[in-house]
Design goal:
With 167 residues, the chain is α+β, with helices and mostly antiparallel strands. Helix content is 16%, strand content 49%. The relative contact order is 0.24.
């Protein structure tokens, strides 16, 4: 009889513990719901929009980082709008990254980060010519948060295609 009474009193406590554990486990399972890439044909930059969820209601902000490999093609054009037959063209590649600290609301954050394009470095045009960005391409785009959670962004690779932007 004592065992039955003890069990009856212990049962609500056990159920409460199970419910609280389930809520804590659900609230502390960070994951990205999406990470979508887009590129600007007016700047050549990559923007990745994302939603990070499962961060817990006690989290007020979180750092999110975007990393990508970027390639940009620069070319010189004369004042007539033509590119000289000489090799006044440069392809620049390198890693890019941006980090932002975002407010968490209801255990999640929806935001975006922007990187690139890679700069022309020390490539410059001779006198009478202007430098233009002709194309930017991005690959290996990944968003990650301070919990170690990460997701590949899509589409990947992504490119501006042919553009003609003065630098």
């Amino acid at each position: 009889m004592r065992k039955r009474i003890a069990f009856i009193f212990a049962l609500p406590a056990m159920l409460l513990a199970v419910v609280l554990f389930a809520q804590a486990a659900q609230a502390d399972s960070p994951h990205f719901l999406f990470a979508d890439n887009s590129v600007s044909t007016s700047t050549g930059a990559l923007t990745t929009s994302f939603k990070d969820a499962g961060l817990g209601t006690g989290t007020t902000s979180i750092a999110v980082t975007l990393t990508a490999d970027g390639t940009a093609v620069y070319q010189c054009f004369n004042n007539g709008g033509n590119h000289p037959k000489a090799g006044n063209k440069e392809t620049v590649s390198g890693p890019l990254s941006a980090t932002g600290n975002f407010p968490v609301r209801n255990g999640q954050v929806t935001a975006s980060l922007t990187v690139g394009p890679p700069g022309p470095g020390d490539f410059a045009c001779p006198s009478g010519q202007t430098l233009f960005l002709q194309e930017a391409t991005y690959s290996n785009t990944i968003v990650s948060d301070a919990t170690g959670n990460m997701r590949d962004a899509t589409p990947d690779p992504i490119s501006t295609g042919p553009i003609h932007l003065p630098v």
